[in-house]
Amino acid sequence: MTQKNNKHRQSSGREACGGGEIKAPPAQAAKAEFQDGFSTRAIHAGQHPDPATGAIVTPVYLTSTYVQEEVGVTKGYDYSRGGNPTRTALEKNVASLEGGHSAFAFGSGMAAITTLLLDYDAGAHVVVSRNVYGGTFRLFERVSKRHGFHFSFVDARDPQIVEKAFTPQTKLLFLETPTNPMMELADIAALSRLAHARGAKVAVDNTFLTPYFQRPLEQGADYVIHSATKYIGGHSDVVGGLAVTKTAEDADRLHFLQMSIGAILSPFDSWLLLRGLKTLAVRMREHAKNATAIARYLEKHAKVKRVLFPALESHPQFELARRQSSGPGGLLSFELDGGQREAKRFVESTRVCSLAESLGAVETLISIPSLMTHASVPKPQREALGITDNLIRISVGIEDEADLLADLAQAFTRC
Length: 415
Known about the structure:
The protein is α/β, with parallel strands linked by helices. It has three domains: 1-104 and 245-278, no CATH class; 109-228, Aspartate Aminotransferase, domain 2, CATH 3.40.640; 281-414, Alpha-Beta Complex (Aspartate Aminotransferase, domain 1). The chain is built from 15 helices and twelve strands. It has helices at residues 3-11, 38-44, 85-98, 109-117, 134-143, 159-165, 188-197, 210-213, 248-261, 267-277, 280-299, 318-324, 340-347, 379-385, 401-414, and strands spanning 102-106, 125-129, 150-154, 170-176, 201-205, 223-227, 241-245, 304-308, 331-336, 354-355, 365-367, 391-395. Helix 2 (38-44) packs antiparallel against helix 3 (85-98) and helix 3 (85-98) packs parallel to helix 10. The termini are far apart. 49% of the residues are buried. The model is unreliable at 1-22 and 25-32 (pLDDT under 50).
């Protein structure tokens, strides 16, 4: 048997049929594959011309199983729950962009978070930044608590408050920064040092800034999570999730869980995310440019009480935003002068902005979080977070800036 076949025998996904130690395939360790710039890696990392045809785009490998050369000897794959070439290309690409050891693609962002949580035993305590995505809150409070997990939701803007929440059972600090929709920031580097000193890991949901504007692993985090449905995909046509690890040890455990739980991303959805990643840099620049223009417009408007956007000098964490990330992303919120009735009238009056949940797409999406994305969060907790009935969130797209500003202006006149 050749040395190459030996390697395939050891590292293939054969354990999908049962037994054996499951380790992350070496093919996913993509950190050193490219040392080029971000856009170059987004287009090329993990992807090579198809050896059979020379096709420049990674094929969609619609197969569930793979023929073995002899018993236990494969070409690197044996069952698509354990690995698929299209999914592997995506995972290598994302690992490169985040500066991680390995990445893993899931059927949704919530599937990625669930899989990470199941790396811990029942009884584990998790400290969570308050104002996390409503689906994350629902998973933690209404699902995971029933299975023996414990959660403390804290104001992660203050490291002292975070520190007080730690217990001997704390295994994970889960941060969302900036938060949605209140745009609160957590100091990733400072809180990572705090958590590591107490034996806990750190996971950061990086959905809103993406690796183009923020790379948590470089600032001390152990895991990065993405709802790839948002900016990674970028076109409102795919649902997916990603988890990135810093170390090989964490990668092996997460790969075992991915194999065992099976909440994997399909080959075609993996292909869609690869396509989206190729334009991530140019899209994020346009999102940020448009969002900054809209935030400055809203800040001066007589019918707006306040604007929440980290790139504004009025944001209380403006300096942290400049230090921790290279750009603001495309998400902002503002409080309309009025109540729920006026807020509904406003969002229903826009023409270019689409009234819809989700975010991070080329289209501008507008919503009322208290009635839509965060409706599952109990009203007292929403109000404590500042998610009022007149708070409006805009996921700014990449339409022409002038058209977006004109659309908001006419909505103001109608409400």
